[in-house]
Write the structure tokens for this entry.
Amino acid sequence: MGDAKAAKQHEKRSYDDEISSKNQIADMLSQAFRDGEPMEVLIGNQVTLFFSEIEGEPVVPAEGAENTTAEMSTNIDYLKKHEFLWLDSLEPEEGNELVEKHPDVPLTLRFFHGMTTLEGVTRFVSKVALAEGRVLKLAFPEKLGRFRQRRHYRVRTIVQALPAISVQTKTLPATAVKMVDMSIGGVGIASDLKADQLPLDTPVTLLIQVSGEPDLSIKGKVRSTCPAPRNLVRSGFLRKGEIRFGIQFEIPSAAVEKIVNQMVGRLQQIYLASRRRDEPEPARKAPSGKAQALSEALKQKQAKKGWFS
């Protein structure tokens, strides 16, 4: 699998800067969990990309318990210990077999944080079986390399303002699906469609409608499939059993690229506006005794001048 070669390749990567603070790394991983940010995983020096997401620490039944199957949780406090990292099983499935067969081969994790790309190296430690699938226990990354410019800024959609989108192939008529996220490079969609209805590398035609922007008909190819991410199911955004498909755009001209950029920008505005509405207003600090006394003195002075009459 090229263990030494993969490690040397990583060492030669030219990052804009590196993050070695364990607390900062834990904060960024926690944010990726909260945002449902997908993880790209490279095994050794292979070029095939596998996909996953950060998970909470599984709850393992006590010895002798009636239920012997571990269950997932949303508890990510374990990241503060800087010891390990839990990932959902890899997609496509053969990635899990490779990782378990070659536990000493470095795994490169890549994810996005704002407008930057973060990348770190870890190793497989163990796995825990669940009622459905498994989770992988990995070593906590020693450091993260950061690229200031992410390749394609991916914007999440919100339930209150979902764009209209349909997908069509030679054998599949135009079918409405749900947009999960979008970037200049492609779009994530989710649907009850089966994986064999949209196999990898299938050419597709998408019709995308974003409020305030011109409709966009664009071609692309299916590049990834995976079950609906658990965090999106827990939040109610997706349903259990749905499949997320990653579609890579084929952008034929600068004019089409401009429309895609405008759509991504508009979706970003909608998403940020929703985040601001959801954030609680920070509590105002009670004025100190000195500040309170000065305020009262000013009011009395202004009252004598008739400002409050």
